[in-house]
Amino acid sequence: MISTEDKDDSLEWRKFLEGDDCAFVYFYRKYINSLFSFGMCFTMNRELVEDCIQEVFVNIYSRRKHLNETENVKFYLFKALKNTLFNAFQKDRPSSSLDSVPLSYSTDYTIEDQLIQNEQEQIEKDKIVHILEMLSPHQKEAIYYRYMEEMSIDEICVMMNMNYQAIQNLLQRAIKKMRGAITEYNDVRMIVKKGKRCL
Amino acid sequence: MTIKQKKMQKFEKYTNYSCEEFLNDDFFIASSKHPTRETIAFWNEAIEKQLIDKKEFDLARNILLFIQSKQERMLDSEMLELWEKIEIDNKANLNKKSKHERMIFIFIAAASILLAIAFSIYQMNYRSNDNLSSSIENVKAPSMNSSDIYLMLGENQTVPLKGDTVKVCYKGDKIKVNEKATNLSAEKDVDNQNAYNQLVVPYGKHSMLTFNDGTNIWVNSGTRVVYPVTFDKKEREIYVDGEIYLTVTHNEKWPFTVKTNRMKVEVLGTSFNVTAYAKDAEQRVVLVNGKVIITKKDKHLAELHPNEMFEDNGSKAKIEKVDVENYILWKDGLYRYESEHMDMIMKRLSRYYNVHISCNADVSFLKCSGKLDLNLGLNKVLDAIAITAPITYNIQNNTYIIKSSIIK
Asked: What is the pTM (predicted TM-score) of this model?
């Protein structure tokens, strides 16, 4: 199923390929936020993520005569950013292979969070972090695509270079783990209230 | 099946859903992340009537919220800074490329001169045994560059017409301009059977054309229309380079044809819009009512029904259903846009008024919806936008500069 949003995207993409710079701006402002959040899941280094996003956009602009039409621009950009990030990681650490770079949710608190004086709240917060930390990097990555970016399982397969069943299993196991951990804490609501606050 | 039954069936699907199953359901995910009035009502009803397991549902919702609890965000200023860096890189790359391309260009230029010579030799030979080359699409475009709308009667007489919108009406052998009789006569070259008239509308201007048969044509800016002094007895034929909207007077025995540089649109009597700027890749036909047939080099391409649009981008052609009004509002000088970005709106206005408009990056990102009456003139239109969006403008060296009105 192609949503109207995807249709808009593929139309703008075609305009971009035909030389329309406005269409280029359109993609930047539409996806810059989600691309940045996505990039920050792989590293704590804001500058590195920004550099990689820059590289992705400069690259598609300079190669636009050689690019093809696409139905799913968002997916294309995400995939490009992931590749660029991994290339950057490999440059820094030549020994590490692509799969050994873990996707990790940052456990760094935002400034607002640091102002929390209430010790009880801090404990709740730690629990959320703790539960997320229980997931494997792959599980976290799959969960991110599915629930943050609402990608289809097929798209996640391509993003992670795994087959359909493997992705299904990854997601199911991650949810089971989280479910178990959350019900362990009796007051689910308390945790979630906290979760809402950091949205 | 009643609506109620349909709804019950939908509820049924979720009756014994576990938390895991909810989280694997696209509708559940989408409605949790982007709730609408309908989806909220749907889930509330399901819970109230105890048609789904509330505990599992809540748990799934909580996990979803939970996953979203951590998101790194970028500041607006960072977004802008990054954008500026990208633009600088892009410009640098373009300069590098253009040097490279210049070499290729010289080569291509040399090759095309050779081709042109070859072609003219071929044409000279070809023409000698073909004297039928006086068809409508080959009528020469006038070489003059005027900022006024003008009429070309026959091959020699050009008549400039003052004003931003001009109505031209052929009545008998007389021509009326803006409802006023003139001493202009349509049949200037009576002896020349193949005489054509032309109406040329530059950017920033508009016109309306009425033919003897009652057919009305709205002519958008940057458009040239060619038509015979009197229509042929067998068919009515015109040529367009640009955009026109037509209401063709119905006559089953007297077909009406619109030619563009690439295609031919044949009708009996309908209302439709043709966008075919010869220099643009995209050519479009949008049908309001009736029926039209589109052909290309005598090959049948498509048959359109009301509310359909035919679009040919040079390599591919397609037909789709569209909201016709959006494509023909221009004839009334109206422009409607829905969550359109500021720079796109300015691009459109710049084309309409034929002025240069430059949009600062910090306002290009704004999204607006609305309807503008372009007849009011650019200044009034910009003032109207400035009321609803935080923008301001000034004019420097004939360029309108659109800026944010928020002082940082």
From this structure: 0.45
